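Protein data sheet
==================
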Amino acid sequence: MVFTSLEFLTLFLPLVLLIYVLARPQWRNGVLLVGSWVFFGWLSPMFMLLHTVLSVIAWVGGLLIDRAPFGSKSRVRWLAGMIVLNVLVLCWYKYANILAATLNELLMSQGAMPLEWQKVALPAGLSFIVLQAISYLVDVHRRTVKVERSFIDYATYLLMFGQSIAGPIIRYSWVSEELSNRGLSWRNFSLGARRFMIGMSMKVLVADSLAPVVDVAFALPEPSFVDAWMGCLAYSLQLFFDFAGYSAMAIGIGLMLGFHFPENFNRPYLARSIQDFWRRWHITLSSWLRDFLYIPLGGNRKGRLMQYRNLFLTMLIGGAWKRCGPAHCTGEARSENTGSVSQNWPLILKSRVECPRRHRLMSGAASRSDRITAYTGTGWRGTESSGLPVAKRHITCSVLRAPSAWRGATLRNLPPANCGDCS
C-alpha cells in the first residue's frame, strides 16, 4: 500500500483521519501508532514486527543513555552500541542479497556449487526509520532533547506512516512539542489536503508519465546523441518529481494531522553550484549528513585535506545508505569535492546512469524488465531501437490515462490510449 494506491486513498487514509478527528487529544498518538502498524502490516506483517522491535530498542536505548552520567564512558558505550545495532540491521537488509550473489558468483567461477539463498526483502521505510532513531539517540546523548519516556509518543514519532516511507527525515526536536500538544484546524487540514494533491499530481501525472521514456532510453543498446540526452533529462525530471511528490504528500498528511514537517526540496535544478544543489536536494538528508557525520568527523576545521576527506566519507556513506554500487557512491563523493559546475554535472549524470538501483517507482508498477518489454513489445509499436521516438509521442497519452496508475496498474493492463499509435 502506497500513497497513490486505491486502498490508501479510499480506505486507509479516510478511515484513519476520521478516527483521528473523533478521538480525544490524548488518544490521538495511539490512533496514529495503530494506523502506522496497520500501514506497515498491510505491506507485510514482518515489516510491522521489525519496525516495532526497532522502535522498542531505540526507546529503551534512549532511556539507558539518559540514565548514564553525562560525559561518562558508559553513556558513550550505550550510544555506540545502539548505533551499531541499527546500522547492522540496515546493512543486513540492504546488502545481504548483494553479498550472497557475489559469493555465489565467486563459487561458480571456481567450479563449485552456488549456495542456496532466499532473497531478503527490504522493509519499507527502514532506511528513514534508522536515521531518525540514530538522530534521536545522538540528541539524547548530547542533551539537546529530553528523553521521551512514553513509548507510544516515541513510536508515533518514529513510525508515523506519513513520512517514514520516503521522507522527509524528521528529527525528534522538530516535533517533540507537537507530539504532546497539537491542535486541529480546518485551515491546516485544507492546506495539507492541497499539498497532498499537488504531490500526487507530481508523482502520477509527471513522474509516472516520464517513466516510459526513461526505460526505453536506458534499454537502447546504442542510443544516439539525442536519445541519450533525452533519457538523462527525462530521468532527472522523473527522479525529482517522484521523490519530491512523495515528500509533498508526506508534508500534506502531516499538516492534516497537526504536524509541521520541514520542506525537503527547494528547486534543486536551479542551483548555481554543487554545494547549492545539496542544500536544495533532499534537504533533511543533507542536513542529517552534515550534523551527524560531516561535523562530527571534523568538518572543515582541520585544513583543506581533512575537509575533502570528511566530504568524501560523508557522501560515500550517504551513497551506501541508498544501497547503490561503488560507481554511484564515489560519484557523489567526487561531485561534492570538485570545484566547478562544468566538472561536476557530468559526474552526477554518469553516476545516475551507472546506478539503475536509484531508479525505482514506488507505486507498485511492473518490474524494470516488464516495463521495457511492454514498451518494446506488445505494448508499443516499433522495435527496441525505435522505441524512444515512439515513447515521445505517448507522453500525452500517459498523462490522459494517469488515473489508472492510481489503481497500481502495470503497463501491461493500462487501458487503450487515444492517440492511435498505442496497441
Summary: Residues 325-423 have pLDDT under 50 and may be disordered. The chain is about 65% helix and 0% strand. The CA atoms of residues 112 and 327 lie 29 Å apart.
